[in-house]
Specification:
By secondary structure, the chain is α/β, with parallel strands linked by helices. 40% of the residues lie in helices and 21% in strands. The chain has helices at residues 28-43, 66-79, 99-107, 122-128, 134-147, 165-177, 195-201, 209-225, 244-250, 290-301, 310-317, 321-334, 355-362; strands at residues 3-9, 53-58, 87-92, 112-118, 152-158, 182-187, 229-232, 235-237, 254-258, 263-266, 269-273, 282-287, 308-309, 338-341, 344-347. The longest helix has 17 residues, at 209-225.
Length: 363
Amino acid sequence: MDSGLYVHVPFCVRKCGYCAFFSRSAEPGLVAAWFAGIERELAALPAGFAPTSVFFGGGTPTALDESELARLLDLVRARVDLRNLAEWTCEANPGTLSPAKLARLRAGGVDRLSLGAQSFAAATLRQLGRIHAADETLAAVAQAREAGFANVGLDLIYGVPGVARETFQADVEAALALAPEHLSCYCLEIEEGTPFARAAAAGRLAVSEDEQRAQFDWARARLVGAGFAHYEISNFARPGRACRQNLLYWNGGEYIGVGPAAHSHWAGARWGNTPELPEWKRAFEEKLEPAAKARETLVMGLRRLAGWGRTEFRAATGFDYDELRGPEIARLAAQGLLVVEPDRIRLADDALFVSDAVFAELV
């Protein structure tokens, strides 16, 4: 069965105004403490853990310098059984990449690069607080190809207040011109505790859900028309290039996360680490009651455009989804939010943009 390892690299050159993920500046003392904690957690991995996917996320993994990246790669290779590995992803900021770092990642076993482009418009990048410019994204993709990466993904953000629809459309076209294997289009969300949240509370930032919906609908049609499979609400991929680690999450699979703020789901238990440095600890651990876990798996899997087949869901959870949430499924279908077939359920197209409201009814 597939499983995954997630490594949280909690360092950024500068935190973006919209971001709620845990990160700090890469001060030498914090980096050293983080390495010590990662080594402890990797040494404590359960017997028999041999992930099919590894994912370095953040933060910004490429905020580490070349020698630190090499140390991290060597540490994972020394402490983790990689005999089943099928995909190894590293997130990257175009402003923190170099040919040397890319070569080091590729030589260390990373074969998938996820680049946080977010936009190709200078004004949008400034508004989001990004440290890179559009030409650095272009250079990063070219350098990644030269380093041997045949699987490159780009992230874009849509629905940014004040950014015209035509500007976002130009972002999508610029991304397509780089011929990535994967594209993620994330709706800007106002996350609690961020500078964007404070600006919104003060009336300096207003999100238009109608405009966000229009941008989402346009991007979906454009990317599908360009040959990408829309396989998850925010994600599009060339055939065979869906992100294996994220599919694990959406399929209710098992994974172990190491680092501050990382979460795990393994052997029927779920736990998470505290978001703190220089040391972190276990924030919580729980063993979900089977029906509760099945409901959670139902919701996560409905993020996939294919939804759940009845037989597939029963094999994954031991439950029939109608036994778990039959009345709710029927009501959502009557509202046009779920498509219910004899042996499959999935989100209706009109529900993709308002999926959280649907999931709240099911979980």
